[in-house]
Known about the structure:
The complex is a heterodimer. By secondary structure, chain A is an all-beta fold.
Amino acid sequence: xxxxxxxxxxxxxxxxxxxxxxxxxxxxxxxxxxxxxxxxxxxxxxxxxxxxxxxxxxxxxxxxxxxxxxxxxxxxxxxxxxxxxxxxxxxxxxxxxxxxxxxxxxxxxxxxxx
Amino acid sequence: xxxxxxxxxxxxxxxxxxxxxxxxxxxxxxxxxxxxxxxxxxxxxxxxxxxxxxxxxxxxxxxxxxxxxxxxxxxxxxxxxxxxxxxxxxxxxxxxxxxxxxxxxxxxxxxxxxxxxx
Lengths: 114, 118
């Protein structure tokens, strides 16, 4: 079975500061891992995904995440936060099998102050 | 990239009526689609998995007679909330499995439907 734990339901940073959103996963099989962003009353937009290729994954809008098997982590980072990054972020895991549903973490709200 | 169109984006209906939500894959064929429900400030809860041409698989605790899912074609899945009640008010989001150029699968989401039952 797969599960995801997002540490910190709310993260606040200043504009220009490093963004770090934490995600730990549990999976009985090699996982696919995803980060999505959600703005109010909108669907989810894919930021990046890990599919067992390179462990450092670069995504859109300057985000990246590193898959660390030894730590069962897939933390999301961005070197410099923008005001437009304020949103809800979800980490999700899928068994390495197409057709299985994504399992989501509880989400982390990112606030960016000027 | 893959696009999933979900309609309507907002709907208000009277208690006891039924509402249909459509989810279309615009530029790819979606053999498998998923329906999620999201409560305010919470994560997405999987309701059911929809496979084209077969019956949907519902998660434990989801009433299949209340939330009717039809996946009649490779580009369209529908969720019908029957005899809606105020407690069915929520944000519903669909998702479809897609494939990238490296033959890795992924998930594209619709923009969601805000259902309010009055």
